[in-house]
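Input (structure):
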């Protein structure tokens, strides 16, 4: 499919790559087998964003709630997150991993990326949410500020403060919920749902979301 032209593009795209387990079951595989199938789609999406000139891309890796799943699934999605970050490290991007790295659920291989690393030409900002929780994110500010906390200065002290406001969130897998995805940055985001599962990613999915986005009336509440 030729790349379409767009009159207006989001600066920051958030991605919820859902449906990995359901995809695996539909293929007659164990649920945990679906996570590694999401690696190639992530790389494809990165390359599409580079081509289009998207400034920032955030992937939802796994949440603290996800760690309640069976051990074999936890091991699989933790490994998939490590492999995904390694795939995108050393490319033309600045890379940041955000999540509770004090927990044993956080992959130690990703500790070096908990502060932003710049690679190559730094064409795009890429963020991974790994062992992330919106409560953990906001509580970071409350712990830093103590009794002086206010809605204004909390924003400057959340754990994910280096991630910019999200313009468009795309969720694969047909579910119509945010699942705690960056609540502060997503406050004015448009939300597009792809019914296909994340391992079945095709460029057309992304183009459809971008085509829909350019027709939206972006007012930021004004």
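Output (sequence):
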């Amino acid at each position: 499919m030729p790349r379409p032209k767009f009159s207006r593009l989001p600066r920051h795209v958030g991605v919820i790559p859902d449906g990995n387990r359901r995809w695996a079951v539909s293929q007659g595989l164990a649920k945990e087998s679906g996570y590694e199938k999401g690696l190639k789609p992530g790389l494809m999406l990165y390359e599409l964003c580079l081509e289009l000139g998207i400034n920032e891309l955030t992937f939802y890796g796994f949440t603290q709630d996800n760690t309640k799943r069976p051990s074999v699934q936890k091991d699989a999605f933790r490994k998939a997150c490590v492999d995904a970050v390694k795939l995108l490290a050393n490319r033309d991007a600045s890379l940041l991993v955000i999540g509770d790295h004090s927990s044993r659920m956080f992959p130690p291989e990703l500790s070096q990326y908990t502060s932003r690393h710049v690679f190559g030409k730094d064409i795009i900002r890429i963020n991974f949410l790994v062992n992330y929780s919106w409560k953990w994110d906001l509580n970071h500010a409350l712990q830093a500020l103590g009794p002086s906390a206010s809605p204004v200065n909390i924003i400057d002290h959340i754990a994910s403060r280096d991630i910019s406001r999200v313009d468009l969130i795309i969720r694969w897998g047909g579910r119509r919920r945010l699942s705690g995805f960056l609540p502060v940055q997503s406050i004015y985001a448009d939300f597009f749902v792809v019914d296909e599962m994340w391992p079945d990613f095709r460029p057309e999915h992304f183009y459809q979301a971008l085509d829909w986005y350019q027709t939206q009336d972006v007012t930021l509440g004004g």
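Notes: The first strand starts at residue 12 and ends at 17. Strands lie at 12-17, 56-63, 93-98, 117-119, 124-132, 168-172, 190-194.
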